[in-house]
Amino acid sequence: LKLFDVIDGNEWITDRSLGAESLRKASQFVDEQIDEMQYRFGIDTRDIVLVGISEGGFLSLYTALTARYKLGGIIGIITHLPGVDELMEEAEKFRIVNSDTPVLHMNGRKDPVFPKEFGKATADTLRQVIPDYTWVTYPGGHG
Questions:
Q1: 3-class SS at 131?
Q2: How much of the chain is in helix, strand and coil states, percent to nearest 5?
Q3: Which tens digits make up the pLDDT trace of 41-88?
Q4: Which of 140, 133, 137 is nearest to 116 (CA)?
Q5: Cα Rg, the chain, nearest whole Å
Q6: Torsion angle of C-alpha atoms 28, 71, 75, 118, degrees rounded to 10
Q7: Could you write out the DSSP letters of every residue in 83-100?
Q8: Taking a C-beta distance cutoff of 8 angstroms, is the pair 70, 47 a contact?
Q9: What angle do CA 86, 14, 119 make, to 5 degrees?
């Protein structure tokens, strides 16, 4: 199942505003999948690592802030977190369960879609609440 199939067909791809409501909807779906893995299959949530590429990375990084489960790790590739400052204000209202979960965030130095500066701004902000946050760049672009 692809992320953009989760929310009203291709809404995730065509809605470039990708506001907090879209992220909340997608995050609820991820929570439901984690519920199923935990209760149906007995998988400990600390054994789950979320990986998202590009727009899927938005969701991975958003989940780092909002998940109700302790996760094993979070990886965001060629991505950033749109509206990170507003989301941080929202995050102040609740306990960040994954504040000590390792996060790996990667951006291409020549990415025309999400310039590395977007990734750096996200990393600088999220490191304030997730100390084990690694941001790296690599030669190359978005694909």
A1: coil
A2: 45, 15, 40
A3: 999 999 999 999 998 999 999 988 888 899 999 999 999 988 888 777
A4: 137
A5: 14
A6: 60
A7: THHHHHHHHTTS--TTTT
A8: no
A9: 45
Using DSSP's 3-state secondary structure scheme, residue 78 falls into coil
pTM across the whole model: 0.83
Q: What is the rounded CA–CA span in Å between residue 126 and residue 120?
A: 10
Q: State which amino acid sits at residue 121.
A: A
105 beta partners: 76, 135
Token pair of 69, please? 């489960």
Q: How far apart are CA 4 and CA 114, in angstroms?
A: 18
User: Which residue in the block uniquely carries the two structure tokens 């998940």?
Assistant: 67
Pair 32, 40: CB distance under 8 Å? no
Phi, psi of 138, deg, nearest 5: -140, 160
Q: Do residues 107 and 139 make contact, with C-beta atoms less than 8 angstroms apart?
A: no
d(CA 71, CA 101): 7
For 134, the token pair is: 């690694």
- H or E stretch at 28: helix 20-41
